[in-house]
Write a structure and sequence with these properties.
With 148 residues, the chain is mostly beta strands. It is built from 1 helix and 12 strands; from the N terminus they run αββββββββββββ. Strands 1, 3, 6, 7, 10, 11 and 12 form a 7-stranded mixed sheet that branches. The protein has a 3-stranded antiparallel sheet with strand order 2-4-9, with no helix packed on it.
């Protein structure tokens, strides 16, 4: 958001979540440690991605998966809004295997009423799993604590 007028500068893509539920597609994402991030800051944390299908999948990223902070109704309230590296990096997850994958968590607010950073408290985190085949899945059962 611009200061002091609080005009939102993110595109519509930042405010929406697209894709099928990861669980329905045979994927699970879980935390390796509690997710704690300071308000208005970003962090890189590893999550465990499990492929319950019978085929290998390659998760496409720029070195870390994207994520969005969501409220209790699933609406996006925060993201990483800085520049992204454009290098393409794949993480292969074999059938019936699990793999630790880094995720970028941003707590910059995309809701002007909340201010410039997502307020401290308990929130949800949706991790986007983008596959080499063009399939987008959303894993949304993670909890994140945002601190002052």
């Amino acid at each position: 958001m611009r200061f002091p007028g609080r005009e939102l500068l993110v595109n519509v893509h930042s405010l929406q979540l697209r894709g099928e539920p990861a669980g329905d597609a045979g994927f699970e994402v879980e935390t390796l440690a509690p997710l704690v991030v300071r308000t208005g800051h970003d962090a890189r944390r590893d999550v465990l991605v499990t492929n319950r299908t019978a085929r290998a999948e390659v998760l496409i990223s720029n070195g870390e998966l994207s994520a969005a902070v969501v409220d209790g109704s699933g609406g996006v309230v925060g993201r990483f809004v800085g520049p992204h590296c454009l290098a393409r990096k794949g993480f292969e997850v074999g059938p019936q295997e699990s793999r630790s994958v880094p995720v970028l968590i941003g707590t910059a607010s995309v809701v002007p009423e909340l201010g410039y950073g997502v307020p401290p408290g308990e929130w949800g985190l949706v991790v986007e799993l983008d596959t080499e085949g063009g399939r987008l899945m959303l894993a949304s059962s993670l909890r994140i604590t945002i601190t002052p």
